User: Fold these one by one.
Assistant:
Number 1:
Amino acid sequence: MTSATAAGASPAPVAPKSRKSVTGTRKAVAALFLLPALVLLGALVVYPIGYSLIRSFYDQSGDGFAGFDNYQALFTDDGIRTALKNNVIWVVFAPTVATALGLIFAVLTERVRWGTAFKLVVFMPMAISMLAAGIIFRLVYDQDPDKGVANAVWVGVHDTFAESSAFPKAHPGRDSPLEPAGGGAFITRQPVTAGQVVTLPLVGVAPDLMPDGAKKAAPAEPADGKITGTTWQDFTRGKGVGTLNGVDAAELGYAGMKIEAVKDGEVVASATAAGDGTFTLPAAADGARLRLPADNFAEPYNGLNWLGPSLVTPAIIGSYVWMWAGFAMVLIAAGLAGVPRELLEAARVDGANEWQVFRRVTVPLLAPVLAVVAVTLMINVLKVFDLVFIIAPGSSQDDANVLALELYRKGFASDQPGIASAIAVFLLLLVIPVMWFNVRRLRREVRR
């Protein structure tokens, strides 16, 4: 009986034990350890978001309910609309260029022995703060080629293919036989005749800026049937020294000066001054007026205005790419290390060249990594502030404006906290879909 009863009886209930997590820690203990982090998260993230959301529906004073007026200003205020347009440019181009460069660097450095050193150099800007990078590129983009590296390189390349003028400040002096001809050129007051010796004195060029080929000016010798003359710097150091409109021993010739003989509006002859400033024109110049064309006096090429209204946004995006291309390269290189080599070798065995292997095998296999990098950079550029604030000068800051900078300007410079809060909420709404896409992709990768 006892055995039957024992066999037929239901087992005694077991007291429930405290459930443990996968790591063996009780949930209550885990929650206790997470509590300080949750408090900080609430104080530093949840509360500011909630306060900004509420504040965005109130007016400037914070006492009157404004409804959706602050949000309406996002699409009617010129400054905010410019910032929104620039943010679109940032989101489209900055992540794309940085990801593309990171992909190129990661693939190319995999095949060279010094690839690690190259990666270190490319990644190094990540160690620099946005503030420091902004100061660096403010100097890089300086308009003066003697200070700004960008314009120093640009002007050097330009001057290699287009010769600049050596006499940008030259002009006729007192009682000169030359007069303005319009457009920056100068022309003789009277026509010249064959056999005549012409003097074309100018002033205004500093002695240390004279062409390297300049020599002591020499008076021209008359020649039968031709027009000869001298063009020179009619200036001698020292008060009362030298002859006005006359060639003196210490004065330099305008080497390379172009002279044109103009008759009835047409150029009938031309010449280039020698090192001592002398020149000779053929008999065809008889009865013409001598003109020094404006090309002789053109201002030297000073490069591009990188921080002007038209180029300031691309210039700042360039500085951002300089900083973040290394980040993209490192992540893509890590993904590239996990690509099965046998697939690449199989493609080569099947006759694919390196470009086809890269385009049809490497890039598709790296698509998940490329998407994560691009999305991460999109989130980052939506919040960009430091670079725009530091690099863009005051004259073009309105043209380079972005939402994060406009938030700062509205909240502090213009004292419009309601509109600033609306911009903050709008930025959050822009970031959330991108973050959601990134989280979903990461979860999908974990399931695989």
Number 2:
Amino acid sequence: MIRNLAIQVVIFVGIFNLVSWFKTTSMLSTDTQMAEESLVLNTIMDTPIELLSNNKKTVIYFFAPWCQICHLSIENLEEFYLENQDVNVVAVALDYMDVDQVRGFTQEHQLTFPIALGTEKIKHKFSIGAYPSYYVFDENNRVISKSVGYSTEAGMYLRTL
């Protein structure tokens, strides 16, 4: 019985990893260098924010306020942000109805990192096809990791090493 359970767990983990890998194939490839052009969006507080930060690792987390997985994983990002001040964290809202919907999401989860209001142009520039999606950029704005779907705080930390 334990052997059958172990086999099922291994199969489940294998399928999960295969699906996760497949979902990221349409995203920007690792080692992609983002152009020197400015990537500035407005935040929910109507202030401009630069998405990438030279000389500092950056996590850009793309979400939609209606996405249930985003609701489950965003608090992991908040914990990661609070414990890793040496990493720049920006969340980018996409596919929202209005700014109040994004503000409600932010207040519900008591988020303290910057929340930018994304555009279709940004969605296409970063090849976002599912939520949540995120990229980790190195100090030179090169993609070093990417993921789609739920991520733990530990998973985010490991991707930023």
